[in-house]
Specification:
Two copies of one chain form a homodimer.
Chain A: H1 29-47, H2 54-60, H3 68-71, H4 75-101, H5 108-124, H6 130-136, H7 143-158, H8 160-169, H9 177-189, H10 191-194, H11 203-215
Helix pairs in contact in A: 1-2, 1-4, 1-6, 4-5, 4-6, 4-7, 5-8, 5-11, 8-9
Chain A binds a DNA duplex (16 and 16 nucleotides) through helix 3.
DNA sequence: CCTACCGATCGGTAGG
DNA sequence: CCTACCGATCGGTAGG
């Protein structure tokens, strides 16, 4: 369907055997692009955006130094792609968790538990470089990109608001809802600085401690 | 006491009048060094360590591009100096706050209030670039420097432990003390990401909300 | 602390 | 997507 044109075969006189090889440039673009994003996420997280060279990223995806710019306009666009992918994934995970838990039937404390647990998953679970990059490299994207991300962010954070309001109304949460939300995200997001998958507690332990800290657990 | 040697005066025949000017290189070294640290703190905070050039830092202190290296071995040493100064200042402020509040006479909830308030001061008060740099550029110092800082950090965090333990023992704090400490610092430290001195709440409001969130306020 | 400078690296591009 | 390359910038140094 896409391979019959054979003009690039060297004129050796022998016909090519087997499935015709695609030119490198024809390899599934989406795949290569994703490989760049994944490698960039890992490197941006480990070394930071400014200390990561586009050559490092290219090498991580098995490419030559100039090739990332075939897929992305510039380095900043790559950073934005990492963040956007991270946020889309986070929103998706959150919605799955909410659906799987049958959120409406739960009392507000258990609703919060679902959201916290899902948040830790996105933040600290396997392959979780995207959101940390988004949280700690926000300085390096431009205003338009920031605005675009903040829409996704509003969707994500919006889910928390009614839960916190219900907890406040019932007296379980004692702090001003707006400041509480900011501080709760801080408490959770900061875990990327100290959490060690190998030692420390499990994500369930963290969730337990967070709930206990914010609303005194599940009395 | 330090000005009688006049060998650098050009032989114009006229004797110098007034207080002899020091050569540039003789100007109070401590002052110049501090100017570099202060400028570096501001720039590191605004643009990040990697995105800040030593030329920027030099210019902020009114120097030429090579001059910072007269005071610091390299850029990393400058970063470390910023962090160390920040931690020393934080420890000092904390001890002052503890002393001024007559800590021993307070109940644990009020002790926590004193620590939280002092922490916000160091984090968000005027001229508070040092600690944010230390919190968000930790990746860029080496192991020896990190070890040196972690001593100061232990001193600072050590003050919190008995307070949290007392709150836990009395049932006011419901979460595991170790995880609670980490999450509390997260909630507070994250504020540098969103707090705006011009809008939002005052540091007292933040303190109030934090206490309410962690231990249900002061019932 | 300044002047003058160096080697290395980096983001990005043209042309295929 | 590769090759070959450019201009700019950067950390750092020698020598005064």
């Amino acid at each position: 369907m896409e391979s019959a044109s054979a003009p690039r075969v060297p004129a050796t006189g022998r016909r090519p055997r087997g499935r015709p090889r695609k030119t490198l440039a024809q390899r599934d673009d989406g795949n290569r692009r994703r490989a760049l994003i994944r490698g960039a996420a890992r490197l941006f997280r480990r070394k930071g955006f400014d200390a990561t060279s586009t050559r490092d990223i290219a090498a991580a995806a098995g490419m030559q130094s100039g090739s990332p710019f075939y897929h992305f306009k510039n380095k900043q666009a790559l950073l934005f792609a990492v963040m956007e992918e991270g946020m889309r994934h986070a929103v998706e995970r959150q919605q799955q968790a909410v659906a799987a838990a049958g959120m409406e039937a739960l009392d507000p404390a258990d609703q919060l538990r679902v959201l916290v647990r899902s948040h830790f998953e996105v933040l600290l679970g396997p392959g979780s470089d995207f959101i940390p990059v988004m949280l700690y490299e926000a300085r390096s994207i431009n205003a338009r990109q920031r605005a675009s991300l903040s829409e996704l962010r509003s969707t994500y954070e919006g889910t928390w608001v009614p839960v916190l309001q219900a907890l406040y109304a019932s007296g379980r949460l004692k702090a001003d809802v707006k400041l509480a939300r900011l501080m709760i995200f801080g408490a959770l997001n900061w875990s990327v600085q100290w959490f060690d998958r190998r030692k420390e507690a499990s994500l369930d332990d963290l969730t337990q401690a967070a709930l206990a800290l914010f609303i005194g657990g599940n009395p």
